[in-house]
Amino acid sequence: MSRAVVDPGGGTGGTGLTSPVPASGVPGIPGQPDAAPADPQRHGDAVANAPRPGRGRYVALAALCLIGWAGSLAVGMSVDCGPDMHRIGLACHILALVLSFGAILVVDWVGFLWLLGKRDLHDTHRLETAAQPLIWGGLAVLLISGALIRPDVSNPLTQVKLLCVLLLMLNGIALAPTMKLLHALPAGTHFTAVAKRLRRRLLIAFCISQGCWWTSILVGLLNSTLRRWAGD
Ligand code: HEM
């Protein structure tokens, strides 16, 4: 049985990362050893006092995403690369989609299993670290290849899709500092032991991520099908 992770601030201050729960209120994680630290109070203090990653880094990454997104749109609106490049661009677009979305699905799924108490918090950490290059590399290729396949920016559906693409990237970056703090919690920390504010933040980010990805994919498929039907 996992031990309760107490709020280092006694529920009134501290990191606010974990919330006080009765010892019997935290279910054990099936198949996981009891990995809670001997002194969660001290561990919580360590998390609270750990140097927070600089905000500037995340602002710079968000700016980079914005520039990449705007650049992709600008090129897509002004350059016609011809039918051969269009075919290559579309193939790259689909491959990058498989790479990036496949990795996102696995990461979000394991996060969901942690939420249900079927995986350890640090499983999600390891997986997320390994998947980052696939996710962001795939997104970069999606932006580049999307620019080569003549996006019809006057189409309202395409506008929704492009906004979703921007939102999912910014959501990923905005969530990074929260994930860093979350992963600094002891192995064995259950979702129910995490502070309510942080739980809500994680759930909202999960919904934005999945909602934006699925909308982008469905709009892409719909637009592609309509284009083919129109014989374009
Ligand atoms: C998360 C990012 C993205 C996802 C998940 C996505 C998804 C898709 C999908 C599933 C298709 C259908 C492929 C097919 O079966 O033919 C598609 C097509 C397309 N995508 Fe994307 N895409 C993304 C980003 C972009 C960006 C950034 C642009 C442009 C700047 C773009 C422009 C296009 C274009 C032009 C098509 C061809 C269909 C059409 O006329 O709209 N995509 N996309």
Task: Walk me through what this model shows.
With about 230 residues, the chain is mostly helical. It has a domain at about 80-230. The chain is about 70% helix and about 0% strand. Helix 5 packs antiparallel against helix 6. Residues about 1-15 and about 20-50 have low confidence and may be disordered. Protoporphyrin IX containing FE (HEM) binds near residues 94, 151, 221, 223 and 227. Protoporphyrin IX containing FE binds near residues 97, 143 and 227.
Short description:
The chain is mainly α. The protein is built from 6 helices and no strands.
The helix content is: 55-70%
What are the low-pLDDT stretches, counting only 5+ consecutive residues below 50?
A: 1-17, 19-49
Q: Percent of residues in beta strands?
A: under 5%
Summed over residues and divided by their number, the pLDDT gives a mean of: 82
How does the overall form come out from the CA principal axes? Answer: elongated
Radius of gyration computed on alpha carbons = 21 Å
Bound molecules: protoporphyrin IX containing FE
How many strand elements?
0
Order of helices and strands: HHHHHH
Distance between the termini: 61 Å
Which class do the helix and strand fractions yield? Answer: mainly alpha
| Biggest sheet overview | none
Helix segment tally: 6
Question: What is the oligomeric state here?
Answer: single chain
